[in-house]
């Protein structure tokens, strides 16, 4: 920390101390715990005891500042001493004097050594603080691994000198200094004032297709607006504005439909057009055009209202409400219905835009978005009635759209499929196994729309296919419970499992032999069972990840359930990189299946999860991937995996230093990660994207393409770093 940061920190501590301490100017243990906001009270109690230099069971401002000053400005030995005292649980005495003389005496603060039981107590608290759940036997293994590493003289205890000589922490000066950082308030972090990324050369280079297309789109709208205004110049300024907005609405209300021609876009992704047009940005463009329609609609309506006001002043034959809500003025090409249809269109368009907002779709109300968005059919019908020229814009794209819909309905109904297996996974994820018809062909990362009548008869929802195309008989979906439909899906199969369990004895008494056989085939475990449930599938539809096998160096980043498209890709890699064995000797090698689309030289897979349970979704797949590369040297591996658990505290946090070191030691010893069971070590916290991409850049395996699926907030962060390194960035939307 710099001197300025230290000063700001101490000023903040002084100010917050006054808010927390209250009138007595002292902080007791409960107030201290509340202020620290730690999950595990052990660390709050240990820090409280060490800060309370006079043993009064309360901390004064002077005591707090002295302790914090030690953690910031003290020497490496001072900071290691503080850490040692935290771990020395028998050492119940607090800092009697925050001075170097006191710290040089290891026996002045307790037993002066750490035994295995003390270390186990601390590691157990570390696990709770990091939200990691491990069996008691694994905790014992972690304790012994760390203890044996530090106890050099095999005396059965760790002294301060052994801890100091062990170099337990790779960089003790910075690590222990940063250990005090957990007291720093987030709001004190200063943001560097850099040039806005939208003005950087890297941003324009990496988004050239999208930006050029948007410029062309804006230019077309401006030209249409000006031409319409000039054409109606005799009618006055308000009529000119209304007609200008109306002509732009003709274009945009047609173009927004073109952007949703999913089958056509999927086909175009396999052609040269994908290198010219931003096809992978179709949903972003759909949003932009939607907001443009709203703006033009409001402008069109307001301009007509002002023009009606001008007409009322000129002749006074009709009132404003007659112009807006009746056919008496005779405005419009079909029985004077332009005003009435215009009002209805204004309401429908505003409703669609509001209900398609992120706060509606992401707050568990997807059905509100879904049903209001279906009103697009009425919007187009009303537009044809409202405007004499709209049908000219609509006829060709409209026919293509209708054909697409009819083909989708025919295919989905003709190929009625069945869910044949269900597995309820942690964090309310439903794994569906669907019987795949012979003619259903897809590529890794594609998505489908699925309708399950027993859940909702008329609702279709999009999900990414998480199995590989090479699996001929089945396909997988992994559905995270985030809204009404997905929650009903999970609860339906959960209740089915519970019903099967409760009725097992009754059914067995009715027909013991027959029912026993049925249960074996119907239920594999409490949350895993076979079934035969009707469903309908519309798709598949292409996504940006279709380009992965045309990349040279691909970086796949999945956040939480965002792993699903990459699960399909990774499984496809297993099939394409099969291990071959010589029939005459023990030699084995990895042979690539001949594929004209396969240009990959290296794949980095990064999976970020909030909690430990989420890794169970695809742990078997990842284990298989590791086994296929077990004989390869780390530097020469085609696929490199990186796991991150955000709830786990980082190695720079004093509450996690010992735990992370123990996990590292045990992983080296067992060649397996204690959290996931994989060979790949799970890293705590979030990735440092600059370091991650710097390493990728230094490998020089070819042009780097980064594929991401997860939260939009993280997408912005990753995209900004990609622009700095000149990497191509692709974002999945499902």
Automatic annotation (TrEMBL):
Pfam families in alphabetical order? EF-hand_5, FAD_binding_8, Ferric_reduct, NAD_binding_6
Protein name stated in the entry: NADPH oxidase, EF-hand calcium binding domain 5
Its membrane topology: Multi-pass membrane protein
Q: Where are the transmembrane segments?
A: 211-230, 236-261, 288-312, 332-356, 368-385, 391-411, 554-575
Q: PROSITE patterns from the entry?
A: EF_HAND_1, EF_HAND_2, FAD_FR
Q: Where is the EF-hand domain?
A: 39-74
Kindly list the biological process annotations in GO that this record carries. defense response; superoxide anion generation
Q: Which UniProt keywords apply?
A: Calcium, FAD, Flavoprotein, Membrane, Metal-binding, NADP, Oxidoreductase, Transmembrane, Transmembrane helix
> Which SMART domains does this chain map to?
EFh
The UniProt entry, under PANTHER family, shows: NADPH OXIDASE, NADPH OXIDASE 5
Please give the InterPro entries that the UniProt record associates with this protein. EF-hand-dom_pair, EF_Hand_1_Ca_BS, EF_hand_dom, FAD-bd_8, FAD-bd_FR_type, Fe3_Rdtase_TM_dom, Fe_red_NAD-bd_6, FNR_nucleotide-bd
Any idea which GO molecular function terms this record carries?
calcium ion binding; superoxide-generating NAD(P)H oxidase activity
Source lineage: Eukaryota, Metazoa, Chordata, Craniata, Vertebrata
Q: What is its main location?
A: membrane
**Localization terms from the record:** Membrane
UniProt keyword Transmembrane helix present: yes
Q: Does the keyword NADP apply?
A: yes
Record-annotated FAD-binding FR-type domain positions:
412-547
Q: Name one GO cellular component term.
A: NADPH oxidase complex
């Amino acid at each position: 920390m710099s001197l300025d940061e230290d000063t700001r920190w101490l000023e903040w501590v002084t100010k917050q101390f006054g808010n927390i301490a209250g009138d007595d100017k002292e902080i007791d243990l409960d107030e201290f715990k509340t202020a620290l906001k730690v999950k595990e009270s052990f660390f709050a109690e240990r820090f409280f005891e060490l800060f309370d230099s006079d043993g009064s069971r309360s901390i004064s401002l002077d005591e707090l500042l002295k302790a914090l000053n030690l953690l910031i400005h003290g020497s490496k030995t001072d900071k290691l001493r503080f850490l040692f005292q935290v771990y020395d649980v028998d050492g119940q005495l607090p800092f009697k004097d925050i001075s170097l003389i006191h710290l040089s005496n290891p026996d002045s603060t307790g037993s002066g050594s750490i035994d295995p039981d003390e270390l186990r107590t601390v590691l157990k608290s570390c696990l709770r603080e990091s939200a990691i759940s491990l069996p008691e036997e694994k905790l014992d293994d972690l304790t012994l691994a760390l203890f044996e590493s530090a106890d050099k003289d095999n005396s059965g205890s760790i002294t301060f000198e052994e801890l100091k000589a062990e170099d337990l922490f790779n960089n003790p000066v910075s690590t222990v200094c940063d250990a005090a950082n957990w007291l720093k308030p987030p709001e004190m972090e200063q943001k560097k004032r850099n040039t806005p990324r939208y003005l950087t050369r890297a941003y324009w280079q990496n988004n050239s297709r999208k930006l050029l297309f948007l410029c062309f789109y804006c230019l077309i709208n401006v030209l249409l607006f000006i031409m319409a205004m000039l054409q109606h110049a005799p009618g006055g300024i308000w009529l000119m504005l209304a007609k200008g907005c109306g002509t732009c609405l003709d274009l945009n209300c047609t173009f927004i439909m073109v952007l949703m021609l999913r089958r056509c876009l999927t086909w175009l992704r396999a052609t040269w057009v994908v290198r010219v047009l931003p096809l992978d940005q179709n949903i972003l463009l759909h949003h932009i055009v939607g907001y443009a329609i709203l703006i033009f609609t409001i402008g069109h309506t307001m301009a007509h209202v002002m023009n009606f006001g001008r007409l009322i002043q000129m002749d006074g034959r009709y009132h404003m409400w007659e112009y807006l809500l009746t056919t008496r003025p005779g405005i419009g090409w079909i029985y004077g219905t332009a005003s009435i249809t215009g009002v209805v269109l204004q309401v429908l368009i505003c409703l669609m835009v509001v209900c398609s907002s992120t706060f509606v779709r992401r707050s568990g109300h997807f059905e509100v978005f879904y049903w209001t968005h279906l009103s697009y059919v009425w919007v187009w019908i009303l537009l044809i009635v409202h405007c004499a020229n709209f049908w000219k814009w609509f006829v060709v794209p409209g026919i293509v759209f209708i054909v697409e819909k009819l083909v989708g309905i025919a295919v989905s109904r003709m190929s009625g499929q069945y869910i044949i297996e269900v597995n309820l996974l942690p964090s309310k994820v439903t794994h569906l196994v669907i019987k795949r018809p012979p003619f259903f062909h897809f590529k890794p990362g594609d998505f489908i729309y699925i309708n399950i009548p027993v859940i909702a008869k008329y609702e279709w929802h999009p999900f990414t296919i998480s199995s590989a195309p090479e699996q001929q008989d089945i396909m997988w979906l992994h559905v995270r419970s985030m809204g009404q439909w997905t929650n009903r899906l999970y609860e339906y199969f959960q209740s089915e499992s519970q019903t099967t369990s409760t009725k097992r004895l009754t059914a067995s008494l009715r027909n013991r032999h027959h029912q026993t056989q049925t249960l074996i085939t119907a239920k594999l475990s409490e949350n895993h069972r076979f079934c035969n449930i009707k469903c309908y599938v519309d798709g598949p539809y292409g996504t940006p990840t279709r380009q992965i096998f045309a990349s040279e160096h691909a970086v796949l980043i999945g956040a939480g359930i965002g792993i699903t498209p990459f699960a399909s890709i990774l499984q496809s890699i297993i099939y394409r990189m099969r291990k071959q064995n010589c029939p005459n000797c023990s030699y084995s090698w990895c042979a690539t299946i001949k594929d004209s689309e396969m240009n990959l030289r290296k794949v980095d897979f990064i999976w970020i999860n909030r909690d430990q349970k989420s890794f169970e979704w695809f742990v078997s797949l990842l284990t298989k991937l590791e086994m296929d590369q077990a004989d390869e040297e780390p530097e020469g591996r085609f696929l490199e995996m990186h796991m991150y658990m955000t709830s786990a505290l980082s190695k720079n946090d004093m509450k996690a230093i010992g735990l992370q070191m123990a996990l590292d030691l045990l992983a080296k010893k067992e060649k397996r990660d204690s959290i996931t069971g994989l060979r790949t070590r799970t890293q705590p916290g979030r990735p440092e994207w600059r370091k991650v991409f710097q390493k990728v850049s230094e490998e020089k395996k070819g042009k780097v393409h980064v594929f991401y699926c997860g939260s939009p907030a993280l997408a912005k962060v990753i995209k900004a770093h990609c622009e700095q390194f000149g990497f191509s960035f692709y974002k999945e939307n499902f």
